[in-house]
Amino acid sequence: MTAPTPAPAGGTGVDELLDPSFLDGVQDVPMTEVRALRHRAEQEEVNLSYTRRLLQGRLDIVRRELQRRAEHDGRSLVDLLPEILSEKGRGPAHGLGRHQTVQPTAPEQFETWVNSLAPGADLTDVPSMPDDLLEQTARSLAAGERTLSERRRGVQAVMDAVAGELARRYREGLADVAQLLADESRHG
Question: Where is the RsiG-like domain (predicted)?
């Protein structure tokens, strides 16, 4: 029996954002609703980014354990953790440098999702995993990272579209900066 496939990263919240109809009529809704759409997209992007960082950390550890075994490296995985988790082990960052104004909403759910990508794998004891399970875990985590990243890029495109609509309104004089500041002072 095979394990059930985990729901796509971000679940239905991200599914709704990625639906082509999500932005239908955005140019006609009130500013407060456009800002709410932007905030919603920002929250989902932060959640996906956080999940991706969790996933990448686990994937880096699993891949390094595979490498350690292949090279017959006598050091323990614990000894290698500083190297694994350091930025020098990765290439240059590919993020968009967005300023985040929100925090992940449910970190424990995101960790559960990441762990569900490799059912049967005890990611708390990677050195004791048999080679075949370790290799399958690496493949599963890598596939999960690819689909998560694709969904994250889609959410970022929605964020960009909503930001573009806000910019258009300000550029064309359709938005009132004084009202924005007043609204933010009441809610901030």
Answer: 24-85, 122-180
User: Tokens representing 44?
Assistant: 């989902």
Is the pLDDT at 183 greater than 80, yes or no? Answer: no
- Domain residues of the chain, as ranges? 31-90+102-187
163/173 Cα distance (integer angstroms):
15
| Closest alpha carbon to 77 in 61, 99, 58 | 61
Residue 160: per-residue pLDDT? 96
Tokens of 162: 């909503």
Instruction: Identify the DSSP state of 21.
Output: G
Calculate the average pLDDT of the chain.
86
89/92 Cα distance (integer angstroms)? 10
Q: What backbone torsions phi and psi does residue 85 show, to the nearest 5 degrees?
A: -90, -5
Q: What is the pLDDT of residues 103-140, one digit of tens each?
A: 878 888 999 999 999 998 998 899 999 999 999 999 99
| 187 pLDDT tier (thresholds 50, 70, 90) | low
What single DSSP character describes residue 23? G
Alpha helices per DSSP H over the chain:
11-18, 31-70, 77-85, 107-116, 131-171, 177-187
Q: How far is CA 94 from the centre of its chain?
A: 13
Exposed e or buried b per residue across 49-86, where buried means at least 16 C-beta atoms within 10 angstroms of its C-beta:
bbbbebbbebbbbbbbbbebeeeeeeeebeebeeebee
